[in-house]
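Q: I'm building a small set of examples for a reading group on sequence design. Run inverse folding on the following structure and report the sequence directly after it, with nothing in between.
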């Protein structure tokens, strides 16, 4: 499994309730760009089309491949995610009932060299939760430093 990009802000801004591995529909030059790690998941999210029961990732940036001759390439276009219909319906129910959202957390190539996304079902953190996490992280960092110097 070769990791390409990680959405670090999602781990800080959201409480992750569930993670799902999904496929993604890409064009040829996008796959080449992903192999060069020319991708960003910041500000991206997933949305379900209720009419056709399709799910799309929005605002995910994949840069144009540097040797590509494509001139009308849109790096932030909507990209379809691959899930079974019953899984999409289950996600739709979850996100509507509990006021949750879907955010891509990681993008990677699996063992068969197929691009996959880890899609997180998340709930937004409150400001005080974020402050508490920062305090805990700083405290653990200080503990590590003092333990390192005491030996």
């Amino acid at each position: 499994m070769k990791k390409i990009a990680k959405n670090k802000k999602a781990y800080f801004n959201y409480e992750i309730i569930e993670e799902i591995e999904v496929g993604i529909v890409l064009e040829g030059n996008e796959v080449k760009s992903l192999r060069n790690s020319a991708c960003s998941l910041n500000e991206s999210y997933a949305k379900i089309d209720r009419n056709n029961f399709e799910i799309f990732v929005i605002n995910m940036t994949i840069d144009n491949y540097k040797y590509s001759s494509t001139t009308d390439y849109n790096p932030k276009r909507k990209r379809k995610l691959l899930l079974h219909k019953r899984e999409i319906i289950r996600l739709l129910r979850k996100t509507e009932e509990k006021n949750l959202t879907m955010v891509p957390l990681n993008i990677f190539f699996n063992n068969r060299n197929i691009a996959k996304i880890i899609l997180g079902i998340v709930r937004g953190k409150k400001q005080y939760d974020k402050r508490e996490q920062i305090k805990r992280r700083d405290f653990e960092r200080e503990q590590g430093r003092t333990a390192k110097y005491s030996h």
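The chain has one domain: 2-124.
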